[in-house]
Amino acid sequence: MIAGGWSHGGEPSASQMPTSLLLLLLPLLLLLLPRASIVAAVATEFLYPNFTVSYFNFSESGGVFLNSPAAVFSLTIADPTRQNASFYLSVLHSATGSVVWSANRNASIPSDGVVALSSHGLSIALPDSTVVWTTRALPLAVSALRLLDSGNLLLIDAANATLWQSFDHPTDTLVSGQNLPVGSPLTASVSSTNFTEGDYAFVVTPGDALMTWKGSQRYWSLSTDVRSFKESNAEVVSMATNATGLYLFSLGGEVVFEIFLPRSDFRILKLNHTGEFQVASYAAPNSSTITGNEFEAPSSNCDLPRSCPSLAICNEGINSSTCSCPTNFQAFNSGVCMPADGSRLPSSASCGDLSAISYITLESGIEYFANTFASPTTSGGNVSSCQSLCTGSCSCLGFFYRNTSLACFLLQHQLGSFFESNAVGTSTTIGYIKTLVSRSSTPDHSNDRAKKTHLIAILLPAGASFLLVLGSVSTWIIWRKRGGATQGSKGMKTRATTAAALGGGEGDDSQDDIEILIPRLPTRFTYAELEEATGHFGTKIGSGGFGVVYKGQLQDRTEVAVKRLENVGLHGRKEFCTEIAIIGNIRHVNLVRLRGFCAQGSRRLLVYEYMNRGSLDCLLFGPGPALEWQERVEIAVSAARGLAYLHGGCEHKIIHCDVKPENILLHDGGHVKISDFGLAKLLAPEQSGLFTTMRGTRGYLAPEWLTNSAVTDRADVYSFGIVLLEIVRGRKNLSRGNEEEQQQEGSWSGESSAGEEEYFPLTALEGHQEERYLELADPRLEGRVREEEVARVVKVALCCLHEEPRLRPSMPAVVGMLEGNVEVGKPRVDSLNFLRLYGQGPTDPSPPVTRGGIRLATPADGNRTASDVDSVTYTAAESIPGPSS
Ligand SMILES: *[C@@H]1O[C@H](CO)[C@@H](O)[C@H](O)[C@H]1NC(C)=O
Ligand SMILES: *[C@@H]1O[C@H](CO)[C@@H](O)[C@H](O)[C@H]1NC(C)=O
Ligand SMILES: *[C@@H]1O[C@H](CO)[C@@H](O)[C@H](O)[C@H]1NC(C)=O
Ligand SMILES: *[C@@H]1O[C@H](CO)[C@@H](O)[C@H](O)[C@H]1NC(C)=O
Ligand SMILES: *[C@@H]1O[C@H](CO)[C@@H](O)[C@H](O)[C@H]1NC(C)=O
Predict the structure, then answer these.
(1) CA distances from 573 to 299, 300, 423, 516, 578 (A)
(2) CA of 677 to the centre of ligand 2 (A)
(3) 162 lines ligand 1 (CB under 6 A)
(4) 617: three-class secondary structure by DSSP
(5) Which of 67, 388, 558, 744 is close enough to 71 for a disulfide, judged by CB 3.0 to 4.6 Å?
């Protein structure tokens, strides 16, 4: 058995052999290797010092030489290209073959490179013994190398203490159970087969998790991702994933941010070589069965720095994105965009002749990914001061100027691709790309007319070659649209206003089908279909902070409620659809079902199942017959169940943020359903660093909305507590002693008759303290309720109102208490005394609510209903610090 001798410990002699002989024997060697490797058995869990290994010893097992106890992970020497050229020592997820860690990612070894385990640690060397990687100096002697089923590779000492572990040196991947601490980034590989560190990084910071390109340009942050929830203001120390989601944790283990993921026992999180962060979830650690949807960030391809070559515009397509050059640029064969006027782009190394510097203006609506995350280089200046700044800086390759905030963003060192802003018609940010005009070919700048013809002459053939390269019909259509825009707009530097024409419905259509990419999206309707279904929006059945609701009938004769959203701001269509996919897939008997939607141009409509008894506020506060007590309790329990489901029962945790009687709908047969859930996330595109947004309706807002603390699902519990009291009393939480008077005046002025208003939560607290519960029930019940029943519901409600969110029960606990399965907690008066301040009432009926000095936009702003205005008055921030009476 020549082969056995060759393979087993044959490397040292092989390297000493004359090269000619080696070459001669190589084919034979390769032929015989599979049989040869049978000799070396794959170890389990432990390997002990004075062990050396080369790929040749384990080629039979594909380089695997150590398995974890249940073989979930393995340690391998392998060449990802399978060309037998560049080998890495890696930890492999056995079921999927994914590399989750590699030691020598920046220094691959040839097939006869050697991995050695000694009492000093682990090292990797070239055949000539040059060490390319080691675990560095360790404090104690190594007694074993150990591979765990978690994927962690350890060096342990004689006392089994860990001397070194691969989890402390993450590469581009994080697995379930592994912590990614602040300041220890994941760095993407150059390519899927070359593990060398590339330009993309994923880093956890004390306040967020970010993705960066080339060390400085940010292209994603977790806090601004629509899928994340902020849970606390504590400082972040690490990130980790478990069966239910992805979390940023504080030092005390508190969740600061969370992203809910489909339940899964094992995940692999990877920053891949294109800069995308992907979460793959598996049914079990030893399984390759993918569970649920994968999570990807950024959620749009076009948000990646190099979705296209430098300077090209990324266009979101049906199955993939396409690239095209901005007006005044032309594509060269590799898709690189160069100035069409023959000028050169500067390299940041050469400063060049200042007098040769010129700028090409980009169309309005073209945005650069990093501007979303960067703070402006300067602000307050005008466009020419921004330009001088760029001209004066050799590394500046161009700049963006935003005329609304006078912000100047310099683009330094390297340019990525552009994308088209959704706000194309209203964009106030214009980009300018620095070019160097070579004197010989400079067209006369004063002769604009000559330049124009020159431009068109160049652009058309350039577009044609671009078309040939990509050769697809869909690209052609997009190009046609761009070409049309190009010819329609005149001149080179006066492009800004003309692009506004693109902002209408027409320009939007090329993106109409991106929703197809989003899985499980509910039925999509066209605007015309909904116009017909609602009889041109003829029957208005409600209105609220999110927009007006109309009754409609679909072609199959099912009745629907169509909500025309307002205040959805500049939210992109893709983000909108992502949210819709989430909302649309939440099914619960106590939640109003979303049947479909429409996102056409700037229009956003939602189609819901129709609830024929309307909303709870009409039944409670309206002129009809009073609801009987039992019916009230049933409504409360059903609504609580719906909220409990939102908070914990579904894939994505949802904080409603706007719980109020208007959002509790009823249908014949005792059906009670919560509506408008999930919509809070569709509002307010501006996401502040501290809070995603300020949401909700005043009167039902938990006190933490007004102070500087985190908002959690307990904010919904507070709002529900207010609703419970309204159900008990049959009145809005703030009302006059005299109903007729209130209706005549329409809104509460809070002046002359301020003494007469009743803030019922305070009355309820006082009633509770004096144990006079029966007086709190709706007088219209005329005694058709027992005192202990009222006492129970009032106590539950008061517990929900505790000022300290932690002291409020969870929604499932509220359900239990209302049903009588869980003992009702004792309201804590010390955490309810703030109601006395609220009860005082303010002097100004509609003061701006401020938080941290910033005026807060609430969904109610702009189209508040009269009842919302009523309830503005006593939750205003200024009533909190006021003296107690
Ligand atoms: C170290 O761990 C191994 C296996 O888990 C065990 O057999 C051994 O007794 C341990 N040694 C010490 C010193 O704890
Ligand atoms: C995942 O971690 C979060 C935060 O620590 C925790 O609330 C949740 O219960 C965990 N999920 C599981 C299934 O352990
Ligand atoms: C995965 O592990 C479980 C127990 O941990 C075992 O029952 C199952 O057979 C394993 N599946 C595979 C494919 O190895
Ligand atoms: C998009 O993908 C689907 C399925 O993969 C395919 O049928 C369709 O032709 C693709 N469309 C385009 C425009 O490439
Ligand atoms: C900002 O620029 C846009 C586009 O050029 C223009 O329509 C708008 O009037 C400008 N606004 C201000 C405040 O100058």
Answers:
(1) 12, 11, 11, 12, 9
(2) 23
(3) no
(4) helix
(5) 67
pLDDT reading at 16 higher than 90:
no
Q: Is 286 in the pocket of ligand 3 (CB under 6 A)?
A: yes
- Structure-token match 């060096």, residue found: 155
pLDDT at 669 over 60: yes
Asked if the 172-299 domain carries CATH number 1.10.10.10, the reply is no
513 lines ligand 4 (CB under 6 A): no
For residues 89 and 99, the answer to whether their CB atoms sit within 8 Å is no
Sheet with strand 559-565: strands edge to edge? 523-524, 594-600, 603-609, 559-565, 547-553, 540-544
Q: Ligand 3: which residue has its CA nearest to atom 7?
A: 286
Instruction: Note the pLDDT tens digit of each residue in 241-284.
Output: 999 999 999 999 999 999 988 889 999 999 999 999 999 999 89
Q: Which two tokens stand for residue 303?
A: 């948000």
Whether 127 has a pLDDT exceeding 60, the answer reads yes
Rg (CA), the chain: 33
CA dist 691 and 347 (Å) reads 40
29-169 belongs to CATH 2.90.10.10: yes
Q: Tell whether 563 is in a known binding site.
A: yes
Contact indicator for 443, 453 with CB cutoff of 8 Å: no
Asked which of 200-209, 385-394, 550-559, 838-847 is least confident by mean pLDDT, the reply is: 838-847
Angle between helix 714-729 and helix 787-800 axes, rounded to 10 deg: 150
Retrieve residue 207's tokens. 């306040």
Contacts of 766 (CB under 8 A, 6+ apart): none
Among 75-79, 316-320, 413-417, 593-597, which is the least confidently predicted range? Answer: 316-320
Question: Is domain 523-610 in CATH 3.30.200.20, yes or no?
Answer: yes
How far is the centre of ligand 4, averaged over its atoms, from the C-alpha of 219 (Å)?
A: 28
* Residue with tokens 């040749």, as numbered in its chain: 56
Parallel, antiparallel, or unpaired: how do β-strands 429-436 and 396-402 relate? antiparallel
Question: Of 172, 129, 365, 396, nearest to 276 (Cα)?
Answer: 172
Q: What is the CATH number of domain 615-875?
A: 1.10.510.10
* Catalytically annotated residue among 341, 658, 868, 870: 658
pLDDT for the residue numbered 841: 52
Residue 511 Cα to ligand 4 midpoint, Å, equals 15
* The overall pTM is greater than 0.90: no
